Recover the amino acids of this structure.
């Protein structure tokens, strides 16, 4: 696409690497939450939508803290349009619940809209995702 900045695309791919890393051993929930704009919207498949960072925190922190996670994001495409972009792809994850020791794993797909910040970084604005199959 004319005018697309390769640095922007590379930055978004790095954001996805960080997203997965923050939901994996050694990750940090606050760094993950910082990947979102303040007005972000998250549309999980199995829960009400989360609107704004406070709801995104409330909707995700119990699962993050209650389990040991591993996550890998596989973006298939990133398209940049000025200060907005979209990305779609797949992800895989596994987690072990701390209280029961039970492990679950799965895969899914995502479609995400990102906004470029004044400092040139990119953040998640709207994230919609699903699970490919029931968790095992």
């Amino acid at each position: 696409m004319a005018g697309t900045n390769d640095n922007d695309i590379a930055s978004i791919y790095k954001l996805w690497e960080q997203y997965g890393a923050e939901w994996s051993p050694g990750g940090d929930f606050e760094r993950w939450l910082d990947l979102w704009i303040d007005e972000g919207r998250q549309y999980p498949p199995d829960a009400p939508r989360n609107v704004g960072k406070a709801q995104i925190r409330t909707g995700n922190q119990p699962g993050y803290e209650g389990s040991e996670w591993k996550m890998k994001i596989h973006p298939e495409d990133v398209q940049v349009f000025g200060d907005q972009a979209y990305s779609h792809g797949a992800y895989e994850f596994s987690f072990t619940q701390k209280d029961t020791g039970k492990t679950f794993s799965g895969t899914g797909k995502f479609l995400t809209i990102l906004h470029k910040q004044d400092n040139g970084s990119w953040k998640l604005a709207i994230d919609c995702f699903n699970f490919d199959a029931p968790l095992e």
